Amino acid sequence: MEGPEYDVVVVGGGPAGLSAALVLSRARRRVAVVDAGSPRNALATHMQGFLSRDGTPPGELAAAGRSEITGYGGEVVEDRVEGAERTGGEGSGLLVRLAGGRVLRARRLLVATGLRDELPDLPGLSERWGEDVLHCPYCHGYEVRDTPLGVLGTMDGSVHQALLIRNWSQDVVFFPHTLGLAGHEREELDARGVRVVEGEVERLVVDGGRLRGVRLADGTVVPRDTLFVSPRFVANDELLVALGCESDEDGSAEADSFGCTSLPDVWVAGNAVDPAAQVVDAVSQGSRAAVAINGDLVDEEVRRAVGERRAARGGDGGRAARAGRREE
Fold it and tell me: Which residues contact 180 (CB under 8 A, 6 or more apart)?
């Protein structure tokens, strides 16, 4: 059954989606945020590097955002979007179908569904993800400073990651694993005091509910307290793809600097379009997209109002002319 019309339906209740909904609600737009309740940072206990909110639990930030949005009349719907389709041609609005059976009608759609991390298939790694297996030195480096750290080679950027992490500890080991190292990379690691331990990694050694070390295929165990890993970022862009949004060469949704996709009534913000965006970036992108969406809606409303006014004037003029001819 179709529900009431919304100016904007926001898919995703993370920082980008909530930020956009707050701005739109304050602009007196009817907004619904559909949140499936599976945030990427669910395992994180604290959010770091966010000015004035450093150390805040992610769940606390989300709860505050929801409260602010509903305080301005916005709605938060706890459900999962199964699909979306147009009611007609472009500009006709969209139907957003939820897993619970509800259908929302929207003039504009903002997709802020984030991304998922694909981790290397190593025993013990996924179990410690978000605990003592980490990926972002800016998010977690300070908390593990001056302790034995490791970096697992998984992609071209892993060497750079190890060079960065050296800022937080003098004891950093780089495990190339299956990654080949160029001569200049070895030189750079050595110059920075990062020890390279050759050999394929077999598994992580976990004991007492914490990481103890990294075990190589030859049985050698290198003691480490924390291991940094670069996962493969995969955007949760299934909805964008199904709607027919164009993608760039990297496979990401193509969007302008405000988040407008190749479809003028579909927008995107946060990690769904920018894998490198941290929480503060996602909040900014959501706000920026919201301002642009509201401006787009105003433009549409102005065009409609002008058209209706011209039609009304034309009708009045026609009646006056006919009355004049009758008097003659």
Answer: none
pLDDT of residue 89: 67
Query: Cα separation of 93 and 44, whole Å?
Result: 37
Strands 232-235 and 2-11, bridge-based pairing: unpaired
**Residue 228, CA distances (Å) to 8, 40, 51, 136, 166 in order:** 39, 17, 24, 8, 12
Tens digit of pLDDT for each residue in 74-118? 999 999 999 999 887 666 799 999 999 999 999 999 999 999 999
Which domains are present in the chain? 2-117+232-309 (3.50.50.60), 120-229 (3.50.50.60)
> ∠240-243-244 over CA atoms, to 5°?
90
8 A C-beta contact, residue 14 and residue 37: no
User: CA-CA distance, 303 to 299, in Å (whole number)?
Assistant: 6
Contact (CB, 8 A) for 272 and 237: yes
Question: In the beta sheet, which residues pair with residue 105?
Answer: 5, 95
- Residues 223-233 pLDDT 10s: 999 999 999 99
User: What type of residue sits at position 173?
Assistant: V
328 has pLDDT over 70? no
